[in-house]
Write a structure and sequence with these properties.
CATH architecture of the largest domain in chain A: Alpha-Beta Complex
Strand content of chain A: 15-25%
Distance between the termini of chain A: 35 Å
Largest sheet of chain A: 6 strands, antiparallel
Order of helices and strands of chain A: HEEEHEEEHHHHEEEEHHHH
Shape of chain A: globular
Helix content of chain A: 40-55%
CATH superfamily of the largest domain in chain A: Aminoglycoside phosphotransferase (APH), C-terminal lobe
Number of domains of chain A: 2
CATH topology of the largest domain in chain A: Aminoglycoside 3'-phosphotransferase, Chain: A, domain 2
Oligomer: homodimer
Largest interface: A-B, 38 and 39 residues
């Protein structure tokens, strides 16, 4: 739940004067997105999303994020498109923070994932990976394998308060994951979303009422990394039922639709189990870090790290690609 | 900041099937409004606000609130208009809660109140009072004079933690306010908004760039009470500067524009000082109650009760209507 920075209407009008979007017609904070302040903005030119980048986003990385969205949109992917001001710049400042206006996407994210969401998701993910080709900038994955040991170290003092023995268990998992991780260059790399959870994928029904993806949003974890790692993130985020069971039917639907557009190599399929363990420990560690570093009274909804411990344990036990649908 | 109840897209689609609004196109939580869950909803028929009424709203009072909005909108006031389902009913249930869809209003509420907002505000308030005539339902003001002593009693145990001596000072103010309060029938009554703070008033610039009111929202404190009390609420909510100083120019602009449409009687003008003290103690007491009854870790932004102590002291010292612009 967001909106950390309050923007006065006068300051907003002055900001909008630098765009060719016409007059301000409506402006409301959006209660979604965790990292930034997001506003639904309506001007004479239509509907937009105004984002103010809060302190967890490094301003130096914004040209990568905005450039990637621009590149993807230009190649036909439905994603927020940065809107440039009259001077051609999309990245600007507002109320003391970096800020950008992007196009508004219609669609609704699935609060409950159904099997029929998975094939459209797989297609959209493959299209994202193909559309990312040719984008010239690189951003290392700060939350990739090299980031996990420091994150775990940061949780060492208080991690066992969440679950006795947790830190030792994670030490074991992390060592196993890092030793099995694909060598550099062994798998195809590209621009990945890295956080393609259900709340970042909008759907609308097609003429027959079946869900189709109307847009992908929130590219602020995007980076340059193994394409198959993005698939592994989706297997984590989309293929478990509320009771914790892995739904292999969902996984197969997602992987099949993905591979129909961008075939997975044998090496990528073979690596998926360890990539899934990596994705599970990545979300587990950031949640655990937030859990152990957030004062109990803070105005932030803390996400349960143990949800990802259960997923990590599942993937650690699922030794074969077949067990996870690959 | 709101959105307490999460609505799944399937449940929402089933809910929308009871309306003639066409298919769902977008659905996002709004980070404004304190009491209820609000969503920006787009369907083939346009933009709407979906509200789920949370536990602080008594379901038995919803027919009054929705009926009043309907009545006001039918008489030309720009306010959210409840949208009826196919069966003619606007008040429905969704996700286990009472819920209603209302029309979307364009406009932006003023984060910083400027003098030129006040005349349009006064006009809009007078129009609201005139449009409310003929509405057949009554709702007593639960947060009116008879509610203040019980509220203060609820703060007695911990009120002095906010400021030493506060409870005794409020006992004195409250006794003085209640003894000076207008007799029943002495002043005109009608339907009042009772919470017309800046975030409930949307503005858009007119052709010359001057602010005009595009809509009034959030009628969930509306009730049947002294019309001049609503004026007193606005004097509290709109006419103090951030440094605590009362801006009599703003007050005069608001009162003049109000009276041009609905003249204030001599008795109403004479009563304004005590009505302002009443409005100040009303917001002071609810804030103090929330402050002393909210656990420090709760996901709620507590508003400062002492802001209204300063206003109460100002009005207690401003003995004459002239001192407050009347």
């Amino acid at each position: 739940m967001a909106v950390y920075t309050e923007v006065s209407d006068e300051v907003l009008r002055a900001f909008l004067a630098d765009y060719a979007l016409g007059g301000l017609l409506a402006f409301r904070g959006i209660a979604e997105g965790v990292e930034n302040s997001n506003y639904a903005l309506r001007t004479a030119a239509g509907d937009f999303i105004l984002t103010l980048y809060e302190k967890r986003v490094d301003p130096a990385e914004l040209p990568y994020f905005l450039g990637l969205m621009d590149h993807l949109a230009a190649r036909g992917l439905a994603c927020p498109t940065p809107v440039a001001g009259r001077d051609g710049q999309a990245l600007r400042r507002l109320a003391g923070r970096p800020a950008a206006i992007c196009t508004f996407l219609e669609g609704v994210w699935p609060r409950r994932v159904r099997p029929e969401h998975l094939a459209p998701l797989g297609q959209a993910l493959a299209r994202l990976h193909l559309a990312g080709e040719g984008f010239a900038m690189r951003r290392p994955n700060a939350l990739g394998p090299r980031g996990w040991a420091p994150l775990l170290d940061g949780c060492r003092a208080r991690g066992d308060e969440v679950l006795p023995g947790l830190v030792a268990e994670l030490d074991g998992h992390l060592a196993a994951i890092l030793s099995a991780w694909p060598e550099a260059g062994a798998l195809p790399e590209g621009q990945i979303h890295a956080d393609l959870f259900p709340d970042n994928v909008f759907f609308l029904p097609d003429a027959e009422g079946r869900p189709r993806v109307s847009g992908l949003i929130d590219f602020y974890f995007a980076c340059t990394d193994l394409l198959a790692y993005d698939v592994a993130v989706c297997l984590n985020a989309w293929c478990f039922e509320p009771d914790g069971a892995f739904n292999v039917t969902k996984a197969r639907a997602m992987l099949g639709a993905y591979a129909a557009l961008r075939p997975l190599s044998g090496a990528e399929r073979a690596a998926l189990p360890v990539l899934c363990r990596g994705a599970a420990i990545r979300f587990l560690l950031t949640r655990l870090y937030d859990w152990t570093h957030t004062p109990p009274g803070a105005l932030v909804t803390r996400k349960d790290p143990l949800e990802y411990l259960r997923k990590l344990r599942f993937f650690a036990g699922a030794a074969t690609p077949g067990a996870i649908g690959a």
